[in-house]
Known about the structure:
By secondary structure, the protein is an alpha/beta fold. It has helices at about 10-15, 50-55, 60-80, 100-120, 125-135, 175-185, 195-200, 225-240, 245-275, 290-300, 310-315, 320-330; strands at about 20-25, 30-35, 40-45, 90-95, 120-125, 145-150, 155-160, 165-170, 280, 305, 350-355. Bound molecules: 5'-O-[(R)-(carboxyoxy)(hydroxy)phosphoryl]adenosine (KG4) and zinc ion (ZN).
Amino acid sequence: MIVVNVSKSSKIDRMSLTLLAIESSCDETSAAIIEDGTKVRSNIVASQIDIHKEYGGVVPEIASRKHVELIMPVIDKAIKEAGVSKEDIDGVAVTNGPGLIGALMVGLSTAKAMAFALGVPLIGVNHLQAHMSAIHLEHEISFPFVGLVVSGGHTSLYLVSSYTEFEMLGKTRDDAAGEAFDKAAKVLGLPYPGGIEIDKLAKKGNREAIPFPRPFMNSSTLDFSFSGVKTSVVYYLRKHPDPNQEELQDICASYQEAIVETLVKKTIIAAKQNDVNSVVIAGGVACNSRLRELSKEELEKEGVSVYIPSPKYCTDNAAMIGSLGGFMFQKGDTSELGITPFSTSRPKYGRGRGGQAKNA
Ligand code: KG4
Ligand code: ZN
């Protein structure tokens, strides 16, 4: 075990906490400088979307290679744009899972090397919990709240009782909501990533045109299932091939409504069961315009306030890693340099502290 020399701890007591944060779990290489878990000094995101578009989805090996190319220029830019020097950095926060192992390795190895060279602590951060922490970059919110994380790889509900305590309440049993958007978009002939394309086309369509299924909608479980609704689009297209533009808009609007309504209904149940009056919706799918609209409408009717980060903090970014990393650091929850990346959420449910792999 390598022990990091925390030579800057006396400085941290007196001044604000400045973290370098790194995110490389999927197809965005990102670095940020974050102060006190809340103030964004810089947040650089280099997206690989245009490269993966050609293949209709993220190719893990290409993602890893691109991260290798981009990671240092992105970090240098984040430091430069923040107007800090390397000596000002009090710790390095990094995503250590869940995500693509090869992609995570690039960010994690870089973070370890930087923490070691600078003589500051390393903070391994859970990507999904960090999505919810993005809210602290823009809003002050009281605890507890229910957090819905909706991304390309995950759809989960949490009870968040402090800056660093997250209890999973439910999760998808099959596809994530973002995955359901992306896969349906693919069969509809739309480019990757499909969520945003469906969102655009849905704006002109009829949400009630096609009654796509809403799994578990009338059950009290806080789990989700999106593979059925995705398959129903495939069956619908078999019966109604080659939709014209108007029909495509209706399919998108109806499909989006089925997903969004399920997400909102389950979030309302979670808020009621846990007697909370605030909800945070985070992750890439939280950019969806209908989810942003319907969640506010329906949850506010129930007396629950809805907080959603700005789109730039919903999709993958290092600022959110620096936010959770900052709160973990303040609690003394730092990591050894020997930590390893993890690809999936594990185990299924339970209480967990920020950044711990045990409750992804
Ligand atoms: O959080 P994120 O950037 O990466 C993961 O951690 O997965 O989420 C990416 C997901 C993709 O599935 C993408 O299609 C979806 O977010 N997404 C959207 C929208 N913008 C991004 N889904 C629906 N509507 C959108 N406007
Ligand atoms: Zn994400």
